[in-house]
């Protein structure tokens, strides 16, 4: 960072300096040289985490800023990739590496507290939840990288400012505006194994008028798949659902004898590590002066996403009725003497289990076609009262629609009847050749869903009166928000006649009226207080009140101390309130040993009587910029978040273990029957959950000149002290269901260059963790990346880079969600090359 001499430094410049330093975190490029050079310019600026229009950009809350140059340099092709690389992230947010159950969405998981607890804003206003329908978080795929000017990550509870969902923090995506000229960007990349190709082409056009600016953009991006079995480190799958079929756990050998099943099916040959996707986006921003002190602003974004995933052929798991004397033979299966001699007998319900991997039909191909539209407009002006008051009115509309499908699904009812009608083709242990029979049991599962949002807001900001140390600033406002969502599964799935899990439709809405206020008080030249209060009245559960208190103390010209205490809440979403029952095949360990496969069906339920989650957050830290080392800044922040009455599903594995140990309450809570009967295994949403997490963030940024080069060094560390949820300590553990809570995550970067070129090395470290499934150690990993850029002239610029330079293999996790690891945490596709060209006229 550029510094002025201590003697020439004004109070305003000093305040701006500390505010800028406070915003620098993850990367060395978060504050450009040109931005710092304009320190002397005084204007009111909107800062993430506060509605007060400020001149000094300084708040008590820690904010990370990532600009477009950094996103380009590190080769990020989607917003979720960029966010999940930050050290402040944990858990296992869905994204491009999530093949099973994601419906192609990409989300952010700040502090690992859940994507539904991180609020996503676009230009300071709410973004509509999006995905396959009735979603509880924003699909980041709806925001193209090409339109991003910078991303601000508020790592502090902000419900008192923004309302629900901001428990863990806020991600505010600022789009490109005030652009003049025409620019084309073309980027692309692939792995060193010649797969996983990705590319984007975008165009940006903007022009100024005497009274405004209009900026327009378009982008197209495509990402191709990477199959799991194409990576030689992948653990082969061993599913109990095999193409030849099994009856009562027995299979026919090559001699036609019934024997114990010993082989498993390798499902990794059909599944993706990187899922294919295509995105088409149009966006625009405008600023138009309508007269003295009256400005109209607006932005519009439309994105179409076409994505797909692929899983192994549908596993059919049928409990067939066994014929007894006098039964209609077309409504049951007959056990011949060879079967009986092999030990195939009916259970106490008179049934025998039949399992078959429907490879004769083909793999399950999941497709999504989603459309997301967001329009926001605002009118702002000022009133000549006191020292001046600024007012604004805004309306934001968002709508998301989705059509989803699953090819080669299986109708369990028809399949059962087909087996009863003629069991021979199904029990020979040989591939099935009757195409008409296969066509009769297979179908394409189709579903549709959507989300809609309306937000009206009004605000007033200004200065109340002067104290000796300065003016008392304030912001007050009101907001009305309406949210609705729906999801209609395929009728066969709703009827429970599919081999996939049964699911009910979702449909519901709610509205909320809010009032809020903020006050910034300069108690002394060095001490400033920030106070916020918000009241929300929901149509579903009633009302909630939240507050925030922040203090900044400029101890010296080099040192600022800051702290924030706040309360927060999260209202239950449409799907949590009105979702009905749905099934999920979770990776679990059956302690009774009754289940043949680790994927066990869990019935998930919602509840219309859910109450809001409540939270407390606390941060305390310092910003240090030593005058004796020009260009250096250091931030250290302690943080803690506590959530009670959390809307959550209890740990199913923990419930199984407790029930097996004799805890009858656990058996009843999860509907576990006698002797470990898991036919009705249920996990309900409740308000009995909690989270308690704490840690320390550290950042060092240093810019200097040496060897006739400009250098920038940055180091970011997050040290997790504790993460506890619902009675389980996840600190420094990793698991396929919950993701990773590494005690140490570190990002380091160093950049060197001159006016027309630069090179950069950066690495990402994920520390050693405990395997939650086995208790063994999971190895730490260090990823190395390099990039370079060169400006031929004011028109042409090229860039290139390599991610995962040393082709590090992901760490093995016993209960991994795919391929023996957790793709949402580790890089599973290997070394990647990328390059780009920018042309500006």
From TrEMBL:
Keyword tRNA processing: no
Secretion signal, residue range per the UniProt entry: 1-37
The TonB-dependent receptor plug domain, residue ranges: 57-170
KW Nucleotide-binding (keyword) present: no
Chain location of the short sequence motif TonB C-terminal box per the record: 824-841
SUPFAM superfamilies associated with the record: Porins
Pfam family membership, one: TonB_dep_Rec_b-barrel
Coiled coil, from the record: none
Any one GO CC term of the record: cell outer membrane
Membrane topology, from the record: Multi-pass membrane protein
Main localization (coarse): membrane
UniProt KW keywords: Cell outer membrane, Membrane, Receptor, Signal, TonB box, Transmembrane, Transmembrane beta strand, Transport
Compartments in which it is found: Cell outer membrane
Family in the record: Belongs to the TonB-dependent receptor family.
Stated name of the protein: TonB-dependent receptor
Species whose genome carries this gene: Shewanella sediminis (strain HAW-EB3)
């Amino acid at each position: 960072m550029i510094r002025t001499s201590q003697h020439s430094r004004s109070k305003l410049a000093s305040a701006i300096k500390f505010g800028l330093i406070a915003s620098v975190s993850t990367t060395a490029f978060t504050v450009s040289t040109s931005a710092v050079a304009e320190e002397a310019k005084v204007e009111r600026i909107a800062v993430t985490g506060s509605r007060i229009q400020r001149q000094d950009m300084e708040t008590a809350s820690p904010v990370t800023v990532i600009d477009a140059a950094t996103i380009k340099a590190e080769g990020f092709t989607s917003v979720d990739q960029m966010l999940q690389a930050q050290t402040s992230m944990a858990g296992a947010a869905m994204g491009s590496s999530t093949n099973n159950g994601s419906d192609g969405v990409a989300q952010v998981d700040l502090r690992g507290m859940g994507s539904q607890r991180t609020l996503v804003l676009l230009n300071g206003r709410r973004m509509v939840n999006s995905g396959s329908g009735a979603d509880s978080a924003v699909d980041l795929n709806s925001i193209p990288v090409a339109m991003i000017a910078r991303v601000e990550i508020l790592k502090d509870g902000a419900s008192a400012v923004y309302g629900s969902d901001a428990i863990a923090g806020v991600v505010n995506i600022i789009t490109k505006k005030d652009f003049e000229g025409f620019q084309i960007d073309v980027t692309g990349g692939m792995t060193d194994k010649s797969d996983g190709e990705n590319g984007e082409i975008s165009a940006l056009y903007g022009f100024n008028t005497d009274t405004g600016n209009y900026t327009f953009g378009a982008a197209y991006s495509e990402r191709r798949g990477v199959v799991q079995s194409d990576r030689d480190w992948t653990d082969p799958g061993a599913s109990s659902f095999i193409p030849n079929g099994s009856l009562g756990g027995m299979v026919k050998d090559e001699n036609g004898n019934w024997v114990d099943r010993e082989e498993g099916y390798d499902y990794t040959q059909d599944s993706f590590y990187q899922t294919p996707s295509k995105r088409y986006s149009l966006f625009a921003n405008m600023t138009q002066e309508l007269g003295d002190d009256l400005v109209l602003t607006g932005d519009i974004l439309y994105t179409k996403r076409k994505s797909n995933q692929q899983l192994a052929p549908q596993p059919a798991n049928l409990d067939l009725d066994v014929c007894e004397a006098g039964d209609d033979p077309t409504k049951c299966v007959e056990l011949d003497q060879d079967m009986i001699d092999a030990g195939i007998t009916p259970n106490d319900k008179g049934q025998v289990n039949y399992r078959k991997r429907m490879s004769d039909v083909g793999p399950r191909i999941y497709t999504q076609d989603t459309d997301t539209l967001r329009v926001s407009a605002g009118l702002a002006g000022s009133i000549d009262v006191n020292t001046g008051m600024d007012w604004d009115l805004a309306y934001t509309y968002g709508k998301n629609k989705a059509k989803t499908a699953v090819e080669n699904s299986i109708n369990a009812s028809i399949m059962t009847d087909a087996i009863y009608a003629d069991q021979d083709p199904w029990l020979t242990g040989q591939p099935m050749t009757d195409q008409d029979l296969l066509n009769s049991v297979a179908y394409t599962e189709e579903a549709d869903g959507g989300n809609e949002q309306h937000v009206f807001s009004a605000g007033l900001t200004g200065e109340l009166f002067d104290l000796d140390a300065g003016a008392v600033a304030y912001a007050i406002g009101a907001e009305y928000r309406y949210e609705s969502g729906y999801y209609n599964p395929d009728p066969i799935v709703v009827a429970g006649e599919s081999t996939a899990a049964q699911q009910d439709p979702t449909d519901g809405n709610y509205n909320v009226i809010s009032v809020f206020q903020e006050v910034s008080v300069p108690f002394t030249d060095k001490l400033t207080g920030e106070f916020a209060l918000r009241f929300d009245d929901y149509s579903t559960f009633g009302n909630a009140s939240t507050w925030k208190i922040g203090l900044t103390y400029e101890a010296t010209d080099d040192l600022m101390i800051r702290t924030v205490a706040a309360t927060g809440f999260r209202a239950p979403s449409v799907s949590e309130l009105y979702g009905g029952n749905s099934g999920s095949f979770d990776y679990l360990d059956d302690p009774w040993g009754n289940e043949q496969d680790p994927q066990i069906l869990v019935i998930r339920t919602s509840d219309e009587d859910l109450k809001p989650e409540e939270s407390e957050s606390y941060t305390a830290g310092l910003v240090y910029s030593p005058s004796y080392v020009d260009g250096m800044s250091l931030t250290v922040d302690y943080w803690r978040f506590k959530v009670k009455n959390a809307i959550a599903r209890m740990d199913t594995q923990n419930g199984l273990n407790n029930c097996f140990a004799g805890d009858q309450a656990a058996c009843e809570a999860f509907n576990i029957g006698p002797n470990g009967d898991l036919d009705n295994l249920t996990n309900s949403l409740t308000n009995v959950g909690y989270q308690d997490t704490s840690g320390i963030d550290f950042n060092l940024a240093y810019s200097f000149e040496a060897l006739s080069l400009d250098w920038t060094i940055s180091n970011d560390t997050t040290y997790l002290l504790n993460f506890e949820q619902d009675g389980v300590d996840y600190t420094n553990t990793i698991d396929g269901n919950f993701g990773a809570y590494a005690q140490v995550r570190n990002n380091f970067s160093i950049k060197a260059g001159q006016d027309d070129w630069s090179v950069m090395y950066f690495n990402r470290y994920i520390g050693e963790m405990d395997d939650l499934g086995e208790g063994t150690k999971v190895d730490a990993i260090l990823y190395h990346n390099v990039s370079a850029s060169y400006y031929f002239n004011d028109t042409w610029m090229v860039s290139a880079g390599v991610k995962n330079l040393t082709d590090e293999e992901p760490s093995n996790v016993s209960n991994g969600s795919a391929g023996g690891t957790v793709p949402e945490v580790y890089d599973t596709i290997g070394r990647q090359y990328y390059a780009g060209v920018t042309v500006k006229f």
